[in-house]
Amino acid sequence: MVATERPTLVSPARPAGAPALAFAGVTKEYAATTILSGVDLAVATGAFTVIYGPPASGKSVLMRLLMGLEDPSAGRITLRGQDVTALPAASRNIGYVPQSFALYPHLSVHDNIAYPLTLARVPDREGEPIVRHAAEMLRISDLLQKRPDQLSGGQKQRVAIARGLAKQTDIFVFDDPLAGLDFKLREQLVEDLRDLQQEWRAAFLYTTSDAIEALTLADQLAVLDGGRVIEHGPPARLYADPRHQRSMALVGFPPANFLPGRLERRGGALWCHTPLFTFPTDLPPDGGIGDAATVGFRPEAIIFDGPADDGPLDEGQRPSLRFAGRIALREDLGGEEIVYLEADGASVTGVTRHHDRRDEGDGQVAAAIRPEDLLLFLPDSGERIGGGLASEAAAPVAAASNGRSAG
Amino acid sequence: MAEIRVERLRKTFGPVVALDDVDFSFPESRVTCLLGPSGCGKTTLMRIVAGLERPTAGEVYFGERRVTGLPPRKREIGMVFQYPVVYKGIDVQRNIELPLLAEKLAPAERKRRVDEVIELLGLGPSAKLDVSRLDNGTRQKVAVAREVARQPRIILFDEPITNVDAAAKLQLKRAFKELTRRLNQTIVYVTHDQTEAMTLADQIALMRDGQIVQCDTPRVLYNRPADRFGGWFLGNPGMDFVDATLGAVAGGDLALASPIFPSPVPVSGVADGAPAALTVGVRPERIRIHPAPAPGAVPARVRRTSIQIGGQYLVGLEVDGLADQPLKAKVDPRVGASLAAGDQVWVECSLDSVSLFDPSGRRSPAELGTPAAAGRV
After folding, report:
1. For residues B188 and B32, is the Cβ–Cβ distance under 8 A?
2. pTM for this prediction
3. CB proximity list for B208: less than 8 A, separation 6 or greater
4. Fewer beta carbons under 10 A from the terminal one: N or C of chain B?
């Protein structure tokens, strides 16, 4: 990271604690198609907020509404405490890296980056340090005199990002700026953008459809799906404690597993049957929930029996829910392995940290899972209703510690 | 013999050197992946092997047979491209059968081969469908099936699953694994995707700037990169690199000092007159984080944490004395969830997984540990 003083930038005064910007009931319709239906979201000052959603979930449209490039069909947009819904784009003062950027082919890299400052009639004396700084942050200082056609794809992307940053403002919008780039280029740019935001303490609003990119960048993560924000919060909270099946499905890689469940009252508790296992739930036995639920669990919740280098699990630590499957494919990511398992009546995905063990072929494997790692959702609405209950057989284990070190 | 050998292969496009005197053998009956970033020369190398491109200099041999000047159709090879090449307007079965009609095969044998690849690639349900009605992933399976059914000794794959959706990618990877387990062809597979290469290859030839920098089995390539580039390119994220200095300790033995070691670590295998400046390379998942001082660990501060693949945490660290070289560790979910920016921690890098690089970036023959401990894989 290049640690330099940021050149003078305007930071309009406003009440402490007020959000940098907010969407309230923002809806966008094109003829008969509803793209966004009532988006509510407040973006904190000085934080890195990621709007994450599958392709075509309306992320770009939402950014264009924020920029003032299109008008919402309904709802309000507030910027720095002021309603800007009717304000023209030129008056909103936001740094912007659009999804499909175009550099001006006849201008040098320097002049491309300086373009927003030139538009805003910032004198060269003030603008020049901003251009230099943006170029330095994006590691393209040595390219300033080149023309776009002399650049590689990754370099062009850096110029576009630098142009978005060359703006005297405290709010920056990045609309999926790394889409289509090589994964190694993305890795470095993600790191640079995170450093940049931390140094500037400006509000960064960033959209992506890549789960790992979203988790890596976000202080605050908003999941956009079906035209609305279905969940919003710190990424660790959304990951561990999703309130909606769709956010569990979307946030995380490899994607979470879901199984159909059937609820049944047994003794004083409500149990859940799935094609792979049956477990006690924390649902009230007379909750009036109906008899169907969707069971969700993360790939890393599946624990494989076998020669992991930690040695075999203690019988006491062994998760209580067992199932067997046939390995359909192991994908080697270098540091970890994704295991695609075909079990009786269901296909599930597991992931393990790589132990360099020999590939034992694609044979049968025994797997297990803890009931407390299972989440329950309503099949229709996707709303989270509860989870699995640590079974009694596994309960006394909590006290035992055989020194298995984590990490 | 279906070994493929290239000798001093050179290809230039104007001032650009796409292949820089490459000597290489693709072993018979094995899957060799050509892996590297865009512009490294992997596609050019494959196209020259296929006969789609003429080398500026150098030779190509299939076994003992020199094929450098032969057009593609005389090379008796199969090819699968990035975009599926299929005959629209006819069904899957017919697509696979068509090229076989040109060969002198008994009808029973022809049918056997078609049925075999249809089963192998899971194309049974769509065998009678017109390929125009299939999605891109299934079409690509048809393209693979057609090439395999011809049973050439050599099949070339050029980024065959780059343009299909995630579900079809997975199916194609499975089918490819099954295919290579049961059949015996020499396969060259070009990809920029490290996971694809690590998953499918018997061996990976890693390319950069028109040269093959290393060729090894996937795990050896990952664990013991021949240069810094391999350490950086493979892995998500790639290796951490930290400066280190060789020096003599009491008794005259050599030891390596670095801010990530609490005290100098004995080194063996150092060549006479080797430079004293080395770089320590270590995979992020091989760095452990302790909440309290621990043997072998040095103090550090947490810069940030984020959730990664499989719920692991990527932890950005600033080791004391290494402010300008931020370190990344990839740790178990439970460890990661307990950490926050600003926390004081102790980090330990697993010594048996360290790679050492000399100032040119090449792997140093030196190894951490005493000679007795060295020599492991």
Report:
1. yes
2. 0.90
3. B36, B37, B40, B229, B233
4. C
